[in-house]
Structures are given as C-alpha cells and as structure tokens.
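For the sake of transparency, this paper describes our internal protein records without simplification. Because each token names a local backbone shape, the row as a whole describes the fold. One such record is reproduced below, unchanged from the form in which we store it.
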Amino acid sequence: MVTKSEEDQLNRLEAQVDNGGGGAWEYLCLVRKLKVRRPDKVLKHGLAILNDFKKRSALGTEEWTLCEQLAIAAMDCQSLDVAKDCIKVLRKRFPDSKRVGRLEGMLLEVKGLWAEAEKAYSNFLEDNPFDQVIHKRRDCLNKYLDTFMADHDAWRELAEIYVSLQMYKQAAFCYEELILSQPTNPLYHLAYADVLYTIGGLENLQAAKKYYASTINLTGGKNRRALFGVCLCTSAIGQLSKGRNKEDKESPELQSLAVAALEKDYKQSAPDKLLLLTSALKSLRV
C-alpha cells in the first residue's frame, strides 16, 4: 500500500517531469517501486527515453526493464503496436524467457483473443505448474466466460483449445453451452459428437450417435462426416454391447439409412471410390 508521503513524492516528481524539469527515469523507477498504475505517463515518458539514443544507451541493462514496463503501459492504453514492438525486442533478447511469455499472453488477452491466451497460459503452466501469476491470469479468462456466457466465439475457441490439449471433457462442456445457445447450428452438434466419440464408453458413444443423427437432420442428410459418424458409433456400440441384454442393443434402422445415404452420395459424386466405401463399411461390420 502506498503511503501518503510516497504518493506526494510521486506527484511532485510527475509534475516536474511533465513540466520539462527532467527526472523521467527516476519517475518511472518510482512508479515500478510503488507498483502504481500511471500507464499514460509511463507510455509518454518511457517512449521519450527509448527514442533518445543517448538516454537509452545510458540505461545499460535497465533498458530491458523499461521495455517491459512500457509494454504493460502500452497495453493498458490500447497502444498495441507499441506493446507488440516492445515484446518483440524482449523476445529477441531473451528467447527462452518465461517472463516475456507472460507478456505475450497478456497481449493476446488485450486483443480479445481469449482462447489463444488460454492456450498460451496452459502451455506455459505445463512447464511452470507453480507460476501463480499465470494461474491468476488464466482464472481471469475463465471468469470472463462466467460473466459473458453469450460470447459464442469465446466458447467455440475455448472448445477448440481444449481439443488441441486433449482435454475432451472440458471441450464437451463448451460444446454443450454452444448447443444450448444455438441449437440449430449443425457444426456444434457435429463437433460435440466427435468429442463424445473420442472420449468413448457406451453411454458417450450412444450420445455421439444421437448428435451425429441430429447433424444429419439439420443438414438435410448432406453431412458426409456425420453419416460416417453414425456408422463408426454403430460399430463401436456393437462391440461394447456383446453379451448384453437385447434392450441394450440399438435398432439397425439408423445405420442402414446412413449406409444407403453414403452409397447414394458416392455413386453421384465419386463413383470411382464406391468400392473403397463398400470395403470400409464392411470392415466396420455395418
């Protein structure tokens, strides 16, 4: 917490610098020391130092400290080009720096690329699982979705990130939210079915088959991937249902329709691959 005397000292130094009385570097150092946010002032006076060769050279290794401070201030002020340039300089100087990695994640956040920022933070935490700063920033991203539940793009991007990280249960949750908000979008039904099929297990395969079927219904029977999905699920369910009661086994009607639709589609659009299709379906025992 900043004391009254420290705040007075900062204000006096700020007024001195603003009026051309010098002391810009001392002011920037005090801002860092007190951990206060004066982004507009930091951006103005920090750039003045970096753009002056003599002043910049006098900083020595402190130049990199100023670049980091300036990058954060520029993001606060939405001066994203300045932030990007500072981070680029720091990355070139410190190619393996985790600290620079944090700045890159923050820049993605400021740009509104929530899912990409989430991915960057998740990758960072794989190597640095106890980094509290990154944990806090990732938690903030998740809170963003808790607050703005209707941001479809954020849910979709987050789902894709979870899939890329093989976190399929989390991806399934995201697609469930998307289907609830946009129930007539076949792409979400298809993606959700793919995730459920990947997770596996009898219940998930049965649910995946239903969502492949809903995709077919929403696309007027034109989605080839969903038709194949029905066949794959039918085969997998058949393997898992061996020895079970008849009630646990599903009617063959849906897969018969899917097979017929695929054969008709291939006859019209790719007759030279019809034999390949027939062979593939036979291997699935459908």
The CA atoms of residues 174 and 228 lie 24 Å apart. Residues 202-218 form the longest helix (17 residues). The chain has 16 helices and no strands.
